[in-house]
Amino acid sequence: MRVRTYAEAELPPDLAAQVADLEAQAWPGATPGHDPALAPRVMVLVDEEGAVAASLALLFKPVRHGGRTYRAAGLSAVVTRDTARGRGYGGRLVAAARTALAADPAVDLVLFSCDRPLVPFYEAAGFTRLPGTVLVGGTPGQPLATDAPGFAKEVLADFPGADTGAAAFAGARIALYPGLVDRLW
């Protein structure tokens, strides 16, 4: 198994079709792809025959918080092929994403949300849960917050290039506002 990373617009057609398949299995009816304004990169874990076992997207945008602007990245659309689950492929890919983002000098902060039962999965890859933190996605005119009724979300983070840590973000409302395509990355 090898991890490969592509700008979403440069994802080879055979891999793009497989990623779209995986996402359709996980989120039926969702439109594949991400907002180009978020400079999406796709990471895939592929076997020797070129079959995608797991995929995720990395999204990027500046985030203003506490009087500062951070160069933020987030994980989105993390999925493992249903027939490959339980083998550690998703964890391997998420850990590779964390390593890649930590090595990227253009990233100060990694922020994303997940369903509560998935918190241990992301913590095992090195991300930190931010208790009480709320990401506000969508747009200022059409916000979507992780504490909206019916959501059971937690916020996780990593601070590879920030001179601050979890304490500056714990218990905070963070205006992510990635737009209407990737409402909450």
From TrEMBL:
This is GNAT family N-acetyltransferase. Residues 1-149 form the N-acetyltransferase domain. It comes from Streptomyces flavotricini. InterPro entries: Acyl_CoA_acyltransferase, GNAT_dom. It holds the Pfam family Acetyltransf_9.
